[in-house]
Amino acid sequence: MKHLKKYQIIVLLIFGVSAFTACSDDDPIEPIPCSNCPTNNTPTPYSLKLPPLFSSSTTPLNIPADNPLTVEGIALGKRLFYEKRLSINNSISCSSCHNPANSFNDKGVAFSLGAQGQPGIINAMPLFNLIYADKFNWNGSANSLEEQALMPVAHPLEMMETWKNVAQKLQGDPTYVKDFDKAFPNEPIDSVIITKALAQFERTLISGNTHPDNEFAADFGFPVTGAIMTAEERRGFEVFDDPERGDCGHCHGGKFNFNWTDYSFRNNGLDAIPDSGLAAVTKQPYDIGKFKVPSLRNLIYTSPYMHDGRFATLEEVINFYTTGVNPNSPNISPDMFHRTGANGHIINLTSQEKSDLIAFLKALSDEEFVTNPAFRP
């Protein structure tokens, strides 16, 4: 081993370490039939209302054919999202790490605490506009919201519970029995149905009312329904969009990409020896250090930033892209070299340009979303 180069050692280690892999559900799915329930329920189809700019997009909505949105399914999913009985000691729920007031993120915390107070190993991602995504988690370990919802319950650093126990707890509550039968008539209460309900609720978490949304919607011919950008925020977008200054569009798009991410997985040069990232899922050495490009929406509610929460402020993030990018990081995205020199610089902004850019990034935050009573228990 001592004769191997450092990078080769990383490659060997990554396939034996599960730090960023999804926890598999080793518990069998234990169906518990609904007894003494009505059998003639028909769930009510739910019509999702989209912001004007979103409705003009050709980006498809990712709704599985076997889990359409229904009024009853969404209501059940919201109840389950705030249900602490999903954890081993009934101490935490999904909302414990995904607080609606923080854009369904654990603001101010790099690593959320599990059911027994143990810290996690990766920053909790905010939850919004998930209906447009097809890969979930920082390392892409889930291919659907239903699959993603399976993971935290049994994870040893999160809820630490078995699905069999969860199903039994819910079956013991007559109000849940009725709610499940309304949403999923004649279906057993099990992990499949529970995660379907959670996924339905999460697909309704739409965030699209910000100053840039309103201004760009007007550019596409929609009436302005709220405040538009200030002069400072508009200058900041010009910095963001300018390939000779911010050059942020390669990963986060522009006014034509209302989600402000391309959903790709990239190594942005954080470290010379990066974390496993996507490689933990694909087992490919060329994916080491690649993490999902996050949306830039709601940043004022979701600090700290990056997959490991290393940056507490947006100023730190901008300074990293100015002076901190490590060009020697393996598998670094080619787009990071657009203006990168030997010292690792990628962008060169004046103090005013940095201030304007941060103002624009903050303007992408949606107060209506984080205060929406429809998302609260």
Please tell me about this protein's structure.
- With 377 residues, the chain is mainly α.
- The chain has two domains: 18-206, Cytochrome c-like domain (Cytochrome Bc1 Complex, Chain D, domain 2), CATH 1.10.760.10; 211-370, Cytochrome Bc1 Complex, Chain D, domain 2, CATH 1.10.760.10.
- The protein is 33% helix and 1% strand.
- The protein has 15 helices and two strands.
- It has helices at 6-14, 52-55, 71-81, 94-97, 145-154, 163-171, 174-183, 191-203, 211-219, 231-241, 249-252, 279-282, 314-324, 351-363, 367-370; strands at residues 265-266, 291-292.
- The protein has a two-stranded antiparallel sheet.
- α3 (71-81) crosses α8, α5 crosses α8 and α10 packs across α14 (351-363).
- The chain is globular, with a radius of gyration of 22 Å.
- 44% of the residues are buried.
- Mean pLDDT is 89; it is low at 1-28.
